[in-house]
């Protein structure tokens, strides 16, 4: 960098731009990288077979959307309104032939274990 002839202060850099910011590279270590447990959990359900959703929609029509253990949480949130409910409240399972009262906190597990035949601690379907 050259100095400005009037003030002696350095001019601003006008060379090529490096688009990657290295200022904080390594500053937080690997805090935000996935742990082995996170990787296992995110891929645990990738091989699960799809099953038609047996939950009833309002008006008692059967849902029949293909879901598996991995897509079930999002499907239940979007299609069946299982969201923004206190985790300690009971929710009635509307899967055809079920009707079981399940704690909201255990509803996804109930769906996976009972209706999608994915036993807990099995590591896959």
Task: Offer a few descriptive terms.
125 residues, two-stranded antiparallel ribbon
Element layout with pairings:
Blueprint: H1 36-43, E1 51-52, E2 56-57, E3 61-62, E4 66-67, H2 72-80, E5 90-92, E6 101-103, H3 107-115
Antiparallel strand pairs: 1-4, 2-3, 5-6
The helix/strand class is alpha+beta
Helix content: 10-25%
Strand order of the largest sheet: 1-4
Sheet bearing the most strands, described? 2 strands, antiparallel
Average of per-residue pLDDT values:
77
Report how far apart the termini are: 63 Å
Unreliable runs: 29-35, 37-41
Q: What order do the SSEs take from the amino end to the carboxyl end, as H and E?
A: HEEEEHEEH
The Rg value, from CA coordinates, equals 26 Å
Please tally the helical runs, counting DSSP H or I stretches of 4 or more residues. 3
Number of strands: 6
What shape does the CA trace take? elongated
Amount of beta strand: 5-15%
What does this structure look like?
The chain has 125 residues and is an alpha+beta fold. The chain is 21% helix and 11% strand. The chain has three helices and six strands; from the N terminus they run H-E-E-E-E-H-E-E-H. The protein has helices at 36-43, 72-80, 107-115; strands at 51-52, 56-57, 61-62, 66-67, 90-92, 101-103. It starts with 35 loop residues before the first helix and ends in a 10-residue tail after the last helix.
Give a brief outline of the structure:
The chain contains three helices and six strands. It has about 120 residues and is α+β, with helices and mostly antiparallel strands.
């Amino acid at each position: 960098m050259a100095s400005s002839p009037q003030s002696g202060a350095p001019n601003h850099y006008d060379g090529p731009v490096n688009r990657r910011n290295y200022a904080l590279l390594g500053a937080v270590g690997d805090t935000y990288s996935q742990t082995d447990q996170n990787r296992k959990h995110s891929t645990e359900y990738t091989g699960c077979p799809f099953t038609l959703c047996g939950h009833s929609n309002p008006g008692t029509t059967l849902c029949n959307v293909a879901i598996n253990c991995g897509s079930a949480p999002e499907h239940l949130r979007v299609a069946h309104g299982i969201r923004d409910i206190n985790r300690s409240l009971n929710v009635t399972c509307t899967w055809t032939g079920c009707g079981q009262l399940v704690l909201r906190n255990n509803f996804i597990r109930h769906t996976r274990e009972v209706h999608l035949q994915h036993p807990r601690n099995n590591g896959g379907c």
